[in-house]
Amino acid sequence: MLYIGSHVGYNKNSGLLGSVEEALSYDANTFMFYTGAPQNTIRFSIDKNLKEKGLSLMKEHGMILDKVIVHAPYIINLANPDPEKHQFAISFLKQEVKRCEELGINKMVLHPGSHVGSGIDAGIESIIDGLNEVMKDNHSVCILLETMAGKGSEVGSNFNEIKKIIDGVGNKELIGVCLDTCHLHDAGYDISEFDKLLDEFDEIIGLSYVKCVHINDSKNICGAKKDRHENLGKGYIGLDNLLKVIYNKRLDGISMILETPYINDLPPYKEEIKLIRDNAR
Ligand code: FE
Ligand code: FE
Ligand code: ZN
Description:
The strands form 2 sheets. The protein has an 8-stranded parallel β-barrel with strand order 1-2-3-4-5-6-7-10, surrounded by 4 helices. The chain has a two-stranded antiparallel ribbon with strand order 8-9. Helix 2 (48-60) links the parallel strand 2 and strand 3 (69-71). It has helices at residues 15-25, 48-60, 83-103, 120-135, 159-168, 181-187, 194-204, 239-246, 269-278, and strands at 3-7, 30-33, 69-71, 107-110, 142-146, 175-180, 210-215, 217-218, 229-230, 255-258. By secondary structure, it is an alpha/beta fold. Helices cover 38% and strands 15% of the residues. The protein has 9 helices and 10 strands. The chain has one domain (3-278): Alpha-Beta Barrel (TIM Barrel), CATH 3.20.20.150. It is globular and about 45 Å long. The termini are close together. It binds fe (iii) ion (2 copies) and zinc ion.
């Protein structure tokens, strides 16, 4: 079964209900959101009433909470070598995990982090330390490491780095991976050979760790390390290659989330989801 959706908003006035309504307006059957602005630490408490209303609207439309994803704010950088900033990242990630639990969401995508000059190995150690610290709380949320484009000093732009992080995490139940097609392509992986890519992933990490896929075309050529998302079929990956990812049998049942850019200030998701459904294979 195809679970397709997009990034949606989540705000104080409409809470989870607003996110569900937005997803339904795109004919999506899943969605992803930030629990607050990704670039700051301002958070409002979860409105239980809006949560309940959102959950019943989901039920009415056959949506499953297990397929819904939260994206951790990108200000969280567990790889930061500055001890204070590393500690801040840990405590903020702990709070985000609690917020997911309050909402009943069990999957949160996290950018592994940027080592900002300390080097890949130190970055990986720092991420492992941070994740193990967060997981001491014994939470119920699986943290999905997103594959990165390799921009700047980003950690996690190849499967070996992700594998090293997973190896260092004590509780394997709480760790997974989110594949991002734009990031993979920008990092140098060939999406047109997606089955080969999955073979490599399976060999190094194990396919069972994949719990979410971000579907984006890319504004740049393979290996550019830029991380600039493009609308489906308008970039260097192309619609056909993205459809091969979306309808890949080995990823059946995994949430596919669009993070493509708005067009003229309007979300493209309804049209892109229709395009995907019209090209079912
Ligand atoms: Fe991301
Ligand atoms: Fe992404
Ligand atoms: Zn990106």
